[in-house]
Amino acid sequence: MKLLVVTCLKEYLNDVSKIFKQANIDVFSTSEIVGHRDGAPFNLLEDWFASGDEQFDSLMIFTFTNELNAGRGIELIKNYNATLKENFPVRAFVMPVEKSI
User: Residue 76 gets which letter from DSSP?
Assistant: First the structure.
């Protein structure tokens, strides 16, 4: 089992929902977050959150799924980001789940 975690702007929720559907992920949870950063990073586009006083309403979306679906989700998000015209890519990572009940 894997934990797939995605962070994105609130405006991207419908797109991420479609990506999850394509990856055979039908159940997920969301949590509202606000990204902050103290100090300017070297490359703003490579960073997770804004610098300075900027704040963005974002979401953390997470789901427990199998390895195949998690991998498919990551690939679909990569493809989505490649076509994104905004400077706020969807971020995602997969973590192993060692035990569950």
Answer: H
For 37-95, write each residue's pLDDT tens digit. 565 555 555 555 555 556 668 999 999 999 999 999 999 999 999 999 888 899 999 99
Q: What is the reported pTM?
A: 0.81
* For helices 13-22 and 67-83, angle between their N-to-C axes, nearest 10 degrees: 130
Neighbours of 33 (CB within 10 A): 14
Q: CA-to-CA distance for 51 and 67, rounded, in angstroms?
A: 34
Two structure tokens written together for 64: 């427990």
3-class DSSP state for residue 53? strand
In the predicted model, is pLDDT for residue 2 greater than 90? Answer: yes
Domains annotated on the chain, with CATH: 2-96 (3.30.70.120)
CA–centroid distance for 25 within its chain: 14
* Cβ contact 40:64 at 8 Å: no
Instruction: Specify whether the CB–CB gap between 3 and 64 falls below 8 A.
Output: yes
